[in-house]
Design brief:
Elements lengths: L9 H7 L2 H6 L14 H11 L4 H14 L5 H5 L3 H6 L4 H15 L5 H6 L2 H9 L6 H11 L11 H10 L8 H8 L6 H17 L15
Helix pairs in contact: 3-7, 3-10, 9-10, 11-13
Length: about 220
């Protein structure tokens, strides 16, 4: 398994900003192995996880796999509304998931090609799909494809985590988050995972307010 201690970018991040040594000092060293699936399954999991807790997302996935195994675009497209409701899909999430399955079946989205694209092109290809915004696309690149330099500035836990680590009076907006992370290139994905790790551990210890709204994907 790859941990933060083994990552080639860790020394550079610690040298560029003391917040990363602080991240490692909370809750042990995080495991950074890319274990989340890519492809249809990976994007479908991201859709399911939007706006819900980790436990809720996992419960919905378990219910889905009881009625569809393996989970494929063709199989998913045959599931009716009642089945999806029983699995926990809202009408909106069912629509997003069906749109994803249709895009893959019709060849409008080629996820193998997305894997070969530069980061900006890959994000643009994914954002063109209904239900996949920039946050979802960046999480897919970071956690499912293992890209090195993704900095998801629309993630609320990232904003709150940076605010706490930098001792800022107010939550940083997108522009400030981009500026703060410039010295962390080309390892901003590692920076994001360390900030998430710090946020999760401090929240678990009762030292941070829970995220409301967009769910922390590392949670």
């Amino acid at each position: 398994m790859t941990t933060a201690a083994d990552h080639p970018g860790l020394g550079m991040l610690i040298a560029s900003d003391p917040i990363f040594a602080e991240c490692l000092g909370v809750g042990g060293t995080p495991n950074l192995a890319v274990v989340r699936p890519a492809g249809f399954v990976g994007l479908l999991r991201i859709i399911l996880d939007q706006q819900v807790s980790t436990a809720s997302g996992q419960a919905m996935w378990r219910k889905l796999t009881l009625v569809l195994d393996p989970v494929t675009p063709a199989g998913f497209s045959r599931l009716d509304d009642e089945t999806l409701r029983a699995c926990g899909f809202s009408r909106q999430k069912a629509g997003y998931a069906r749109a994803l399955a249709a895009a893959l079946l019709e060849g409008r989205l080629d996820l193998a090609a997305v894997e070969r694209m530069p980061d900006d092109e890959a994000v643009a290809a994914l954002v063109g799909l209904k239900g996949i915004g920039r946050w979802s696309a960046e999480v897919y690149l970071l956690l499912h494809l293992g890209r090195d330099d993704i900095w998801p500035v629309d993630d609320l836990a990232i904003a709150l985590g940076v605010q706490a680590l930098k001792r800022l009076d107010t939550r940083p907006d997108r522009a400030r988050l981009v500026a703060l992370a410039e010295p962390w290139r080309p390892w901003r994905s590692l920076a994001a995972r360390l900030v998430w790790h710090h946020y999760i551990e401090t929240r678990a210890a009762g030292r941070a307010a829970p995220v409301r709204g967009r769910r922390n994907p590392a949670g």
